[in-house]
Design goal:
- This protein is mainly alpha-helical.
- Helix content is 51%, strand content 11%.
- The chain contains 6 helices and 2 strands; from the N terminus they run αααβαβαα.
- The protein is elongated and about 55 Å long.
- It has a two-stranded parallel ribbon with strand order 1-2.
- 4% of the residues are buried.
């Protein structure tokens, strides 16, 4: 129906960003996150000039899957980025900025 409305001039065509967002939303609804992660890694690290990335995470956080973090770090390495893992057990990733700032700033050189 939306495409028909575009053809009839009743609605603007979706931007490339909106198409990507819709695609990612549909993938996430069916628990298919790998294509989303691959796209994010390619967007963030591919041809961006980023040379180093520090991954700060709490491996004890029940909402973070350490295997997923490891896989994402491997994807970043595959994009030619130097990767530093900075696990902060017992500290929320946002609190790390204040409670353990060296986990981040001590790894940036």
């Amino acid at each position: 129906i939306l495409r028909l409305m575009v053809v009839l001039g009743r609605r603007k065509a979706a931007s490339d960003q909106m198409k990507k967002l819709n695609s990612q939303a549909n993938l996430s609804l069916t628990n298919r996150y790998v294509p989303i992660i691959d796209d994010v890694v390619a967007t963030v690290f591919g041809n961006s000039g980023v040379e180093k990335a520090v991954f700060v995470y709490n491996p004890d956080d029940p909402f973070i899957n350490s295997a997923d973090v490891d896989a994402t770090m491997e994807r970043a390495k595959g994009a030619g980025v130097e990767v530093v893992a900075a696990p902060t057990p017992g500290v929320d990733h946002v609190q790390t900025l204040f409670k353990k700032p060296d986990a981040i700033w001590g790894n940036i050189a």
